[in-house]
Amino acid sequence: MNIGIFDSGVGGLIMTRALVKHLPQYDYVYVGDTKRVPYGNRSHNEVHQFLKEGVAYLFKKKDCKLVIVACNTASARALRQIQKKYLPKYFPDRKVLGVIIPAAEETLKGKRIGILGTVATVKSKTYLVEIQKLNPRAEVFQLAAPSLVTDIEKGDTKAMKESFRKYLAPLLEKKIDTLVLGCTHYPIGKTFVRKIARLGGQVGKKVHVISQDEFIPKKTADYLKRHPEIKSELSKNHTRHIYLTKETKTVDTLAKKWFGQNIKIETVKLG
To answer: What is the spatial distance between Cα 175 and Cα 27, in angstroms, rounded to a whole number?
Structure first.
């Protein structure tokens, strides 16, 4: 059985690359809902429906035992419902994991924590709740970045950098010591973000930038160690499959760069 990764676009591809690098032995199936990206400006009901369709496709059609929701918006808006209501009824032997709680766990040393995310993620206040459960004394500052995902999906590096500068400025003014990139699309610009954070942070103090692609693979490995009943059912043929709901030049370019020119990208319909 496979490990599935679901996202609205490029962010899930970034996560797939990180997982493959850390745990190369497993078989991966990535589904990107590129036809309906971005999710950040969608309603709660839409995001829930999209996630349900993606999870069902990966379980029914692609024989996945475990699905990682590589989307902060979907993790914030719909993951709990999927785990509590949908899985027990339809797929009681399967698991779905999100990315927000693992990210919150990475902020434990922070005192002034900035969250950069989509409109939906910020409105949900999920990061605020999860961080303060773990670290009640931390001050958390959230900022929505409505245009960033679109810039990244288009592969517009200049626009992406301009957007990062614009959105990071108010957070750095709060004298944050920790910055969470609260969308799996954002790691594609993490080197640039770290440069801005270094220049814009408090004099003599480093802003710790938390990028989900850097710790989700390790946490996935730890999860599999704790759940041998899942790990034992995962196949180990080193296969990678990429499915999109709409072909995009950016995903095609990055997929070939990261997984080789011969990687096959297929178009599928969800729902």
So the answer is: 43
Catalytic residue among 69, 71, 74, 255: 71
pLDDT in tens, 199-257: 655 544 689 999 999 999 999 999 999 999 999 999 999 999 999 999 999 999 999 99
pTM: 0.92
How many other CB atoms sit within 10 Å of the CB of residue 80? 12
Same domain for 37 and 52? Answer: yes
Q: What range does the domain containing 248 cover?
A: 2-98+214-267
How far apart are alpha carbons 196 and 168 in whole angstroms?
8
Q: Annotated catalytic residue: which of 64, 70, 74, 183? A: 183
186 in the same domain as 90: no
Same domain as 223, residue 258: yes
34: phi then psi, degrees, rounded to nearest 5: -70, -15
User: Which one has a higher pLDDT value, 205 or 160?
Assistant: 160
Q: 64 catalytic, yes or no?
A: no
Q: Is 142 helix (H, G, I), strand (E, B) or coil?
A: strand
Which of 193, 211, 229 is where one domain is finished? 211
Confirm if 147 and 178 have CB atoms less than 8 A apart. Answer: no
